Structure formats: C-alpha cells, structure tokens
Amino acid sequence: MKKSLSLVSLFLCGTILSFAQLTKPVAWSLSQQTAGDDAVIELAIKATINPGWHIYSTKLPEGGPVKTAVTFIPDSSKFTLIGEISSLTPPNKEFDKIFNMDLEFFSKEVVFVQKIKLHSKDPFELKGSVEYQSCNDETCTLDEHDFSINIKGVGDASALNKPPLDKDDQGIIHHGLWWFLVFSFIAGLAAILTPCVFPMIPMTVSFFMNSNKSRLQARMQAFVYGGSIILIYTLIGTLVALTLGADFANWISTHWIPNVLFFIVFVLFAFSFFGAFEIVLPGSWGNQTDRFADKGGVSGAFFMALTLVLVSFSCTGPIVGAILVESAGGMVIKPIVGMLGFSLAFALPFTLFALFPQWLSNLPKSGGWLNSVKVVLGFVELALGLKFLSIADQTYHWRILDREVYIAFWIVIFAMMGFYLLGKMKFAHDSESKHITVPRLMLSLITFTFVVYLIPGLFGAPLKAISGYLPPMTSHDFDLHKIIRDEVKLVDNKSGSNFNVISSEAVCEKPKFHEFLELPHGLEGFFDFEQGLACAKVQNKPLFIDFTGHGCVNCREMEANVWSDPRVLEKLKNEFVIVALYVDDKTPLPESEWITSSYDHKVKKNIGKKFADFQISRFGVNAQPYYVLLDHNQQLLVKPTARDLNPDHFLDFLDRGLLEFKSRQVKK
Q1: First-residue to last-residue Cα distance in the chain
Q2: Residue closest to 163 by CA, chosen among 542, 657, 629, 619
Q3: Winning range, highest mean pLDDT, from 175-179, 197-201, 223-227
Q4: Which pLDDT belongs to residue 574?
Q5: Residue 124: how many other CB atoms lie within 10 Å
C-alpha cells in the first residue's frame, strides 16, 4: 500500500525522471564531532539545496511525497544509533497544491544530526545512504546519495573537540604522504614572498659575490648552502618539535631576544650595503673556513643557511608550526616529509642565486649600477628590519614603536631612497653620474608615490595595501577616524540614539587585559575565553573567537581588508560576542590562572602560552589567524576558517554560523 502511494506521489510530480536536471539540485556533505562523551559522536549530514528547489522533512503524512530518509549499514560490534535522526534547521510548513496537504520542507540548506554510540576502540568506516525527493515549481526527482566517513575509535583523545570534517576534508587528510609533500612544497614557495624571507635574497647574493672561488668550488659551496637549509629544517626542526614542543616556533618568532637580534642583524646588513663597513666572520671562524676552502667553504655556507633559517622563522613560523604540531603529537614520518617538502622549495631560489653569483660579480665591484642596487637594498633592509623590532614592541607592550612612529620611519627611509635614486645623495663607493637614467627615474617615481601613499597613515588611514607589515591600528595615538567615530558616538548618546546595540560592558564584566589589548575598528569584546563565553550566554549570542598575535602579518591584513568591510563590521558588532585570544602575548598571569597543558603537560604561565595551548589542544591548529564560532555549549557552529581576504567569503562564514546558532536555539 505504501509503495503504491509513493508511486502515485511520483506520478503527480509530472514527468519525474525524464525532465530531471543533469546536475543534482542537492549536494551532501558529512561532518562529525564529539557530544561530551568520547564514546558518543554526533554525525551531521548537511544538504545544500540549489535556489528554487526544496526537499521534504523526515516525517510526512501518508499519501504525500517521499520523505527524506537516512539509512546506516548496521554493525552492532562497532556502533549503535541513539534515538532518531533530527534536523537542526527548522522546516518550513506550507500547503502544497500538488499533494493537496500541509507539508514540511527545507530550502537552501538543512543539517540532519544523528547521535551514535561507539563500541570499537579501532577506527572504522561508517557507511550509509540518504534517500530523498527534491522538487521545484516544475518538476520533482527522486534520488539517493551514498556516503561514508572514517570514524575514530573510543578513547582517541585526538578526536575530542576537533573541528568537524566533511567528506572532502577527510579526503585531503588521508590523501597520503605524497600529497602532503606537494602541499608542503607549495607552502615553501609561498614563504619566500614573506617580508622576513625576501630581503634575505640580496644578503645571499652579496655573500656569494664576495667569494673568490673557482667555478667548481663556488657551485659546490652553493649546493652545500641549499643542502644545509634542507638539513636544518628537516632534522633540527623535527628534533625541536619532539623535545621542545610545538610552541617553540612561536617563541622564536615572538620573543624579544630573537626579534631584537634579527633587527640588529638587518640594520648591520643595511649599513654594510651603504658602505659603512664590510661584514667579515670572526678570525677564528675565518681560519676554520680556510681549512675547508678546498672543500668549497662548507662552514661559511652552513652559517649563512643557519642565519636564513633563524631569521625567517618570524614569517615561516605559522607554516612550520603547523607541521611541528603533528610531530609533537606523535606523528614522526609526516612532519619529516612536510619539513622536507617545505625546505626543498624554500632552498630552491637561494641555491640558484648562490649557483650563479658570477653573473653579478663580473660587473664593477664599486660604483656603477651594482653599488646603486646594493644601496637601494640597504634602504629596503633597513625598512623591513623595523618589523622585527615592532613584533617585540607589540608583544611586550613597550610602546616605543607605535604605528605612527613606524610609518614616520618608513616615510623618511623611502624619501631618502627616492632622493638617492635622483642623485641628490651619494655614498662613499658611488661613482659620478652626469645624468639620471630612465630606470632610476622610474624607480624614484615609484618610491615617492609610495611615500605620498604613506603620509595619510600618520593620521589614521588604514593603508590596506601594506597593513600586514605595519603595527595594528590600536597602537596609533592620533587616529583621526577614531576621534571622529567617538565624537559621533557621543552625539548619538546625547540625542538618545543607540542603534539598538547592547554594549558588552553594560551587561557583562569589564574585559580582562583591556588596559593593553584592544580590538580594531572600535569593536567591543573580550581577551579571555571564559569571560567571553559567560557574556555570550548573558547576551544570547554566538561566540566569535579570533586566535591572533601581535606579530601576525596575516591577522593585520584580515583586520584591514576584511573586518573593515561595513557588512562584516556590522555582523561582528551586533550579532556576536568577540573574543580575541593573543597566542604570543608575554604578559604573565597570576599563579591562580596558570594551567597545565593536556597536550604537552607543561605549565603555562603567561597569556600567550595559555591561549596557544588552548588552540592546539582544542582545535589541533597552531597558526594564526584562525576564526572559530561556538555555541553556548562550546560546540562548533560551522567549520573554522583562516586567512581569506575575500570579504564575501568571511561574511558567508559568519552568516552560516549565525543561522546554525539560531537553529539550535529553536531546537531547544
């Protein structure tokens, strides 16, 4: 009887299969997360429905369309189902003229959830299918979607509190070591373009240009240089992960000692390019280098490789740190493969420059265009070296290199560089020039244009094109935009207009650490997870967690280019409770707030280490920026996201999280 009714319902839809679209109107994806007990998981089955189409509820009256039904292939030794499947998204209910009855249906998207009790300690593959009927105003189609998902066994701590993985993500994770090697190689190529790495290229060229070796010896030295980079990253990097933990990359990229040292190194190299002195190794090192002269200068090449690896950590730390997390978690082969792929790509351009220094060394050693190139590189080195001092300044709240001071330095440095290109300044090794060449004129034009672009930054302009290189807007003392915004807010308050915005301080505790931490664009929020979660419950809003850092270049780019979008800013201001967790802040915590890590079992005594450990142990990630949306039960609303400079993508991330939060509220 039921089968005949189903056939009748299909017939009423018209020519069901013959007019069905070639592209399925519904796309399915799966994810999983724990439900408070490591033996119980929640399997989320998400349907993304094309515009104009809809699918029906899991509970329908007889005589109507085919209901959505999820079937699992049973295996009582591995799992059992807990209760019935339910939908997080509330259904629409309308009178259906075709079936002549009130029906519940879903459009745009719906998430079905099934709780599952695990019995196996070993991982296994859970298989099943979804049978559903999708309709639009003209036709209907009956379809079935088979699915499978890899489930971790009972007691697997690595599965706890991790972001949900859809089927495509699992395919990436389990693609094997070869794909991981490829992705690591691409990451290494991308790292070359970072502000900490790119300026090292002229230092490499300068070092090998001054080598008076034979062609064979020079090539041998170049190969030793490249091989040393690979050796240091692959072996020493993995050993660091196994012995010092995953946060060592964070230490070397944010602690004041290495960053001030890197700043001094850049300044010294800049002065060397200006002709103030020549950098030579200590006599004992030089004697040792001479002993290896016949072997190609092994010690000198290795020293340069080691310098490159250490200095570049400020920008490669997030990439390397993600690999070190896997190593510290017990996976040894994968991080070695990842570090190998990363270092191969990273070493490639430096090795090529080292192999062919004769192309430049055959040109005049002093005067001429070569010396001009070195002087220009000196200005660039001097400007980029300020980034390291800025990281230490922001991390430790010294406030000696605030944003406007930093920009003022850049304006002066690049203005002097422009005058040098025009021939208005000369250094000791410059040769006389009776006229300005066209290339120098064009370079000076670009330089002065850049200087003019920088000037409004002194008064609070965001300077989005270089926002990643600059200190955050919150460190700007004279922010004209903020002054105007505060004046407008004051006028609005006096006039009684409040835009229906609830101040977090009006109903919640005053944020911890607000004396030295601040959110961009005048946003209100918190800098402690527990405090932010408590306020989210009071205001009945989802929690937006921003894992960030003072030395995070990508974080500043996101804030300047994405958060500043009026649509995004409105969502963050009105719809979420924001918690910014700085993983590199060195402010010590009172002993009562110290924590012992469940990940590496070390005691975390300052703000940065506490929240870096929280990010690693809770979400398995050690890179910033990283954005997470949670409900009041600390469960993920949607899959977390990271750096994406497309505001539309970020807005979609916020909208999906907000929709999911409201759906769970309705379900309660």
Answers
A1: 36
A2: 619
A3: 223-227
A4: 92
A5: 16
Show the 3-state SS of 344-401.
HHHHHHHHHHHHCCHHHHCCCCCCHHHHHHHHHHHHHHHHHHHHHHHHHHHHHCCCCC
Are 98 and 12 contacting, i.e. CB atoms less than 8 angstroms apart? yes
Q: Among 471, 570, 567, which residue's Cα sits nearest to residue 522?
A: 570
Looking at residues 444-453, what average pLDDT do you find? 94
How does pLDDT run across 344-374, given as a tens digit for each residue?
A: 887 887 677 666 655 544 434 444 555 677 7
Q: Where are the domains of the chain?
A: 2-156, 179-362, 397-497, 502-667
Sheet arrangement for strand 79-87: 26-34, 40-49, 109-118, 79-87
Which of the pair, 119 or 314, is modelled with greater confidence?
119
Q: 135 phi and psi, to 5 degrees?
A: -135, 155
Cβ count near 227 (within 10 Å) = 17
Signed CA dihedral, 97, 102, 108, 114: sign only: negative
Nearest-angstrom CA–CA distance, 353 and 201? 8
pTM for the model: 0.52
Q: Which fold does the domain 502-667 belong to in CATH?
A: Glutaredoxin (3.40.30)
What lies within 8 Å, CB to CB, of 428 at 6+ separation is 275
Instruction: Using DSSP bridges, classify how beta strands 525-526 and 577-582 pair: parallel, antiparallel or unpaired.
Output: parallel
* Domain 2-156, architecture per CATH: Sandwich (2.60)
For residue 310, count CB atoms less than 10 angstroms from its CB and return exposed for 0-12, middle for 13-18, buried for 19 or more: middle
How many helices and strands, by DSSP H and E, does the chain display? 22, 16
- Please state, in angstroms and rounded to a whole number, the distance separating the CA atoms of residues 585 and 468: 18
**For residues 6 and 140, what is the distance between their CA atoms, to the nearest angstrom?**
13
DSSP string spanning 478-526?
A: S-HHHHHHHHHHHHHHHHT--TTPPPHHHHSPPPTTTTT---GGG--EE
- The two structure tokens encoding residue 159: 């599965």
Using the Cα atoms of residue 501, residue 504, residue 505 and residue 511 in order, give the sign of their dihedral: negative
The length of the chain in residues reads 668
For 230: left if phi > 0, alpha if psi spans -120 to 50, otherwise beta; the answer is: alpha
